[in-house]
Amino acid sequence: MSNSQLHEQLAQHRTLGTAPPEELAWLAGHGVVRQLSPGDVLSSPGAPVESMFVILSGHLAMSADQGAGMTTLMEWRGGDVSGVLPYSRLVSPPAASVAQEPTVILAIHRDHLTEMIRECHEVTALLVRTLVDRARNFTSSGMHNEKMISLGKLSAGLAHELNNPASAIERSAALLEDRLNDAERAARVLGTARLSDVQLAAVDAIRTACLAQNIPGVRSPLEQAEREDAISDWLGDHGLDAGLADLLAETPATLDALDRLAAAVQGPALEAVLSWAASGCAVRGLATEIQEAALRISGLVVAIKGFTHMDQANVAQPVDVRLSLANTVAVLKSKARGKSVAVTVEIEPGLPHVRGFGGELNQIWANLIDNALDAVPQSGLVEVRAHQEGEHKVVIQVIDNGGGIPESIQKRIFDPFFTTKPMGEGTGLGLDIVRRLVRHNHGDICVNSKPGRTEFRVALPIERPIHDGGKN
Description:
This protein is an alpha+beta fold and about 475 residues long. It folds into three domains: about 5-120, Jelly Rolls (Sandwich), CATH 2.60.120; about 155-300, no CATH class; about 315-460, Heat Shock Protein 90 (2-Layer Sandwich). About 50% of the residues lie in helices and about 20% in strands. The protein is built from 13 helices and 15 strands. It is elongated, with a radius of gyration of 35 Å.
C-alpha cells in the first residue's frame, strides 16, 4: 500500500478521519501496515499485546468458549481501532482475535504511544473516547452473557424440580381412576350384602383402621415386602383374592384388625369390605399426594418469582436477606441433590433488611452458591450464613468444604475471564460480575480459602428507616 493510499484510508477512517491531516500523517509514519488472511490470529490470550491496531478494512472477531460453545465477545470492522489504546491497562487479551475475512490493519507499537499522546491531541481524544466505549460495551456484553448462562442453569434446575411433582400428579391421577373404579365395584357388592349392625360396625372399624395416620417414617423395601407377604398369606388363609395384598399393605391396618373383621363378616362380603376400605384409603392417599405435588409446584413458582424479582421495578429497595437466600437455595436444590450435597442456611434471628436491588442480590447468591456446589466433592457441605455485624452492615457468608483456592491465584479470581474450571465449564465472568453487582449495591466482597474450607464474605449496608424530622 502506497503512502498516498494509506493517507486516504486514514482520512476516511470512521474513528480517526476527523483528526487533523498532520496527526494522521504522524500515524502513517509510525505504523506498519499488516495484511491478514481469514483464520490468521492477531492476538492470543496469554501473549502480550504490543500494538494499537487501526482497522483499515476487513473483519476481526474475539471469541471464547463460555460453557456452551464458542461465543463472540467483541468484533471489529474497517473503521474501528483495537489493541492497546492511550491510557489503557491492557496487557494480554482475554481471548484470541482472529481475522474473519481478508483484513488490512495499521499497527502502531505501544512504545510510540507516549509520543502520540504528546504530538497528536485530537487522535488521542478520539482514542480515549473509543477506550471508554470499549469498556462500556465489554462490561455490558459480559454481564449479558453471564446472565444468559445463569438463566440456562436456572432453567435446567427449575425444569428438573418441576418435573418431579408434575410426574407425581400425572401418576397419582392415573392411579386415582383405577382406585375409584375398585371402590365403586366394592360398594355395589356391599349394597347387596344386607349387613347387620354388628357387621356394619366391623366395617366402620376396618375403614377407620385403613384411614388412620401412617406411622412416622417410611418402611424400607424389605419391610414393605414382608408386610405384603404376611397380608397375602392372611388373604389366602381366608380364601380371598391375594391381589388385595398390595392395596392393604399401603394402609396402616394390622393383621389383628383384619382378624376382627373376618370374625364378623365372611364370604364375598368380606372381600368387598376389604376392597372398599383399601380403595378408599388409596383414593385419599393419592389425593394427598396430588395436593402435595401441586403445593410443591406453587412453592417453586413463588421461589422463582422471588428469585428473579420479575414483578418489581429495578430500583433499590429494602431486601429481606432471609427470603432472598431461601429462594436462591430453592432454585439450586436440584443441583445439590444431584451431588448429594448438604446445603445449610443459618440466619441470625431478627436480621434487619438490607438496601439493594433484589434481583442483583439473588444473582450474587446464585453465583456464589453455584460455585460452591461445583467446588465440593460428592456428599460435600455448603453453608450459607447471614448475621448483623456492627450497626451498619449485614454479612452473608457462603462456605464450602472443597479443595480450596490456591493462595497464588486468590488475588486473580475476580479478574474477568479468569477461571479455575476446565475449558468449557466456566466463563471466568461469574466472580467478576459478582464483584460488580456487590459494588453496585454499595457492598464489599472478599474471599478466604484454604484446603477444606473456602469462604466468600459479602457485606451489605443495612436499610435505614426514613425519619420524619420530628413531625407527628
